[in-house]
Amino acid sequence: MIKVSSLSVFIVISLLLFSACSKVVDKQDSEHLSTAIEKPIGVTLEYNAPKDWEVTNQNGLTVYTAPEHDAAIVIAAIPEADNALAAATSAWKTYQPSFSREVRINAPQAVTGGWEVSREIEYVTSIAEEKLVYAYVFQANNSWQVILLDGKVGTFVKRQAATWGLIESASVKGYTPEDLSERQALSLTPEKVAELVSFVESSANSLDIPGVGIALVENGNVIYEGGVGIKNIHTKEPVDKDTLFMIASNTKGMTTLLLAKLVEMGKLNWDDQVVTHYPDFKLGDEKTTQSVLVKHLVCACTGLPRKDMDWVFNSGPNIPASATFNDLALTAPTSTFGELFQYNNQMAAAAGYVAAHILYPDMEIGAAYDKAMDEYIFAPLKMQDTTFSFAEALTGNVASPHGLDLSGNTQLIKQTATDGFNHTVTPYRPAGAAWSSPSDMIKYVYNELSAGLAPDGTRLYAAEPLLKRREPTVATGAESSYGMGLSNDKVSGIEIVEHGGSMAGYKSNFIAIPTANVGAVILTNSDEGYKLTTPFKRRLIELMYNSELQAENKVQVTVETTQLNAGKLLEEITYPPAPDIINNLADNYYSKELGELAVIKENEDVLLNPGVWETYTGTKASPDGTISLVTIAPFFLGGELVVGEENGLRTLTLLDAQHSYVFSEVTDK
Fold first, then answer.
1. How does 599-622 read in b/e, with b if 16+ C-beta sit within 10 Å?
2. What's the pTM value of the predicted model, to 2 decimals?
3. Domain covering 190-563: architecture
């Protein structure tokens, strides 16, 4: 996935939450398959070209320009270069002769596609530029191929499926990728399970992940449930099969299972207009409101952009569930129906609340949703420990959230029954607020594999609406797509149904391989956990199919990249913050969209506090003269708010992928 470490952490969150989500793009589809210019040495880059982007030839380069005309992907063939950076520089100088940006990070990538070398080079930008500048460099047979990204961050994030689909499909022309589709899956013997668990344990240690919950099911039998590592770096208690983790966006698939149950019961149809079931539902314009069908709430295909900052800054445990619909009423699409993958948490939350309202029309929608999930999902699946209650989760066998601080040390993330960042998702809980354990989650995965049959053969859910959730609606990558609260991926020809989850200090994924009747769950208690979910999936495939060994390399590359990024971030941020900047800050700021933001000065330290969470800050001076406050809490490490002035008032500006939020100083306090 494109890493944007020099940009606001909020953009990073947007991309990470996408990471487990993705109509499959067939690499053999001639309409989208393109190649770079052939060079005498004979190495040619083959890739999936972005559909609907304008393609031109400039000085021998193939240039794809986004429909918005503010972002470009450039393909360059470089016959000779001393190294990856030299190849990238040659490509930039051909594309933009005046190009002179400094390199921020030159990091390795896991080598695939027939390449001998693969590097990702990020260039220095300012957050105020809202610009993404990267080079992806590939080498084989002493010849180099380069993919440049240059343009508006918001456009690349909006069109991330096309962008990443091109990058991840990049291969040497004529290279035959591994194809396991005709290979029979091997049984997960106790020895293979032990190998997988050992891989998780060693990888978690390398990646600074304190604890990991794991569960596996094969042919209807749970063959492993447990964990490695610890629940809390201070108490050192071990993770076990019943340890609760926040599963975040893995809640979405459970919410769509509730919708499937209502379809089975005849209480709604996937193609019903949402307003027929919930008349108060509305979006930023009436035409879009009337166009939204039930299935659109959970397809990530309506054109509505992420709008997470509304709840990150404006939410908490006492905010009503109706906030979901208030947010949506102020949200308009930035692309057309079915055009692009755009992940919107409020839409998924609305799906759960609409279903709950249908079942219990006289109840408050939040309480109705909680009751509906208990009655129709958790109880039938015997997920007895799964809950939406922080108080219940935190008084039991729970894994505490962790993240890395500015120095690269693992720290606990503050979380109590009433306080902490993760409470911000409570009003939007159908999209991501459930707590579950390895033992409970594998029951959910079993249900996906059995298409609704309980272990004793009882049918819990009708197969047709359950399976409907997997049908691809929109592409998210070269061989991945998004359905309804579920993702589809293809690994070396093996079809996988999955979804990931991300909240502060918790990263998770579930995997279902229908053709092998195998499923897996991985739950982690660290922000670093997302770095393990893909290698875990790859290692599982390796053990099942005797495939090419890539998982270990993926981890090693990630460790090196993490160290490079950590060192660069430490170099860029001044902490304690620069006094001349801090002394000029107001004590209180206000944004009409995001509410109040307090600036609390404690000796040399400065905290930002919007209500239910807070973070210490450093300062950063960018080459263009922009000054930023930089958040350094583990769960918000590297987020930037630009210091400025507007209409005579001091301001802090937060830029996420497709929005700009201005906090202005409050003068009457």
1. beeeeeebebebbbbbbbbbbbeb
2. 0.93
3. 3-Layer(aba) Sandwich (3.40)
